[in-house]
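Possible regression after last week's pipeline update?

I re-ran a chain I had predicted before the update to compare outputs. Posting the input and the new output here so someone can diff against the archived version. Not blocking, just want to make sure nothing changed silently.
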Amino acid sequence: MIRKFKITPILFVGSIEASLSFWEARLGFTRTVELPAGNKLGFVILTHGDTEIMLQTRESVEGDLPELAGLAEPRGGIYIEVDDFRDLLQRLEGIQAVVPVRDTAYGMTEIVVREPGGNTIAFAGRTEVRGT
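New output (post-update):
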């Protein structure tokens, strides 16, 4: 019987280097694994506490898993809950929102942005934690 699932999103990007400033500098993720592809990065694993995310270039996917190459486009999104929404908003300053800050009927305050690779990232904080 399966007792635990660990889910790690993989975001397909044109350039990992272009996305690192968003994930590392703005959000505080740390690179734990990196695999080069020529003179660039082809794949990285980033962590922040117990949260893990992978970035892989579309070019790397084509070389590693050609059967997935046609699917390696920004088509989905991820939902990330944070414990300090105000701090998050400061970290996202200057990033254009796809969906501006909104309060939901299910008790969350959310903002949706695109990271530099074109993937949709929804960030949320519990409304009562934000203080509204």
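Follow-up from reviewer: compared with the archived run. DSSP finds four helices and eight strands in the chain. Marking as no regression found.
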